[in-house]
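Q: What changes when beta-D-glucopyranuronic acid is included in the input?
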Amino acid sequence: MLNLQVNSFRKKNNLCGIWNFRIDQEKIGEAEKWYNLLKPELDIAVPGSWNEQLEAEGLMNYIGDVWYQKELFITNEFNEGNIFLRIDSADYSCKVWINGEYVGENHGGFLPFEFDITRYIFVNKINLITIKVNNELNCNTIPQGITAEDYEIENRIREETYPPARFDFFPFGGINRPIYIYSTPQEFIKDVKIQTKLIGDTSAKLIIDTNINSTNFDQIKYEIIDDNNVLEFTEIGNTHLVKSQLTIQNPKLWNLENPFLYKLVITLLKKDLPIDQYSMNFGIRDIKIEGNKLLLNNKPIFLRGFGKHEDFPIFGKGLNLPLLVKDFTLLKWINANSFRTSHYPYAEEWLDYADKKGILVIDEIPAVSLDFRKTTDQTLQNHKNFIKKLIDRDYNHPCVIMWAPGNEPNIVGEESYYNGSGEKYWNEIYDYTKSLDDSRPITIPNCQRAGVDDPVFKFSDVISLNRYYGWYENPGNLDTAIIRMESEMDLIANKYQKPIIVTEFGTDTVPGLHSISDQMFTEEYQSKFLELYCKLIESKSYTIGEHVWNFADFKTPQHFRRVVNNLKGVFTRTRDPKQAAYTLKKIWSVSKF
Ligand code: BDP
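A: The predicted holo structure follows.
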C-alpha cells in the first residue's frame, strides 16, 4: 500500500483537526441514523485517542461505540479521476458514511485502509463525513480481547484488569493516525514493490513490480536517482502488473552509518504524455542469518535497543510527530541501533524516519499473548490478514529487518498448546509470512511461561526471548537471576542451534527512588539489572542482540501490579532519563565488533 503524496497528478486534503464527537454506549446510532446528523455532544482531536483527551467526560476506560463527524468542502481540483478516503488507523474497527450513504467498514487497528469514495462525494460542495469507531475485541480479533465475565468464568479474578485486556498496554481507542481525502488520475499507479539483492560486492539486482489500476496506458518510465546520477528506462505498457529488473553497478548501500536512500520516480505515459507519477525512496541492503550471526550487507551486526510503545500523555496512541523526532534523538543519544514495534505496527512515519536515520526495526503485529484455549479458525484467518496488510504496507522499508508475527503466545500456560495444535498454528503463520516475503527473517518472542518447548522456536529464524529473572522470578536476587538466565539461554541455544535475541528484560523503576542495596523499583536496581543482563548477553557467541524492556514508561490497564504506568522505561513517560539511561549509553558506546 503506497504512502500518499501530492504532485501535479495527485491531490490530498488532510482531515486532521477537531471533529464532532458523540458516545454511543447503547449502540443506537445506526438505528437513529446519526450519519445524517450527529447532534454532537463533544469534540475530539484527530489524530488522538479519546481516553485521556476526554477523561473529564468519563471516557478514560471507555470500551464501545463512538461517532466522529466533520464537514469538508471539496474543491474543484478533485473533479477528475478517483477520490479515496484514507484512514491511517482507527482502533480497532470502524464504519464510514459520506453524505449519509454507507461507504464501507474496516476491522483491525494499527494499519491504514481506504475506500474509493468517488461516487459519494459532491465536488464544489460541502460534504459530511461520519465515522463510527469501536474498540471492542474478542477471541477472534487480533489482538484477542477479554471481558470482565471471562475473568470470572476462567477463575482468573486476580488477573483482572480494568479496562479488561489480554495485554499489558492501555487499550486506547480512537482515530489514532491521520485521515486524508486524496485523488488520483483515472489511470494510476496503485502499488509498487521493490526487491533488492546484492550480487557479490559490486552490484545489486533490483526487481520492481508496479501495479496499475488500468491497462489504458502505453509506457511506464522509471528514473532511479542517486546524488548525482539518473538511471532511466522505459517499459511498454498495457498490463496491470509491470515487472522490471535491472542491475545497479557499485550500488550505494543503506547501512547504519550512511542510510543511503535512492529515489525512484515512476511515470505512466499515454501517447508520450505523462498521466500519473509516483516517487518514493528505497534503500539497497541485504539482511540474512548465517550460522549464529545476523549479517547486514554481509557484515555481522548486534542489535542494541528497545521494545517500545506508541504512548504519550493525552495523545494516547495518537500520532505525535514531536515525540517521534525526540525518540529518535534519544535512540541515537543512548547509542541504540534498533527497536521492536512491540506489540503492533507503528504509524508509517516511524518507519520513514528509521529509513532516514539508519535505525533497524523488528516489525511486529498485535498477535500478542494469544490464548490457545480461545483461538478459532477466524482468529487464524484474521491473523493472516493482518500479516498480509503489514507486509503490503512495510515491504519497501530498508529499516525493517525482521517480521514478528506474534509475541508471547500461551502466556496462560495451556497444556494442549504442546500437543501439536500450537505447532500447527505457528507452522501456518510462518509459511504464510514466508510466502509473502522470504527475504527477511521471522521471529516470535517467547515468554518464560511458555517454556523451552514452545513451538515458536521451531518457526523462528531467530529466537527471541522475553525474560524477567530478577523481577517476576527471583525478585531482588540478581545473583540467582543471572545464573538462571545464563543456564536457560545456553539450553535453548543448544537445543535449537539458532541465534538468540533477548527481546525483553527490565525492571519497573520509580524515578527518584534510591538504595545502596539491591532494592526493586530503585534506579540503582534497574541500572544494575540491565548492566548484568547486557554483560551476560554480549558474552555469548550465539546472541545477536539485546532489546531492553522498555524504552519509556507507558500506560497500562489498571491492575494492582501497575502504578498507572508500566515503569520499566529507561526514560519516563515524558522522556526524562532514569539512571539506567546513562548506564546503557556507556555500555553501548563500546562497539560489539
Ligand atoms: C512481557 C510482555 C510485555 C509486558 C512485559 C512486562 O511482552 O507486553 O509489558 O512483559 O510485564 O511479558 O512488563
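Observations recorded in class: The chain has three domains: 11-135+172-184, 189-282, 308-370+398-421+440-587.
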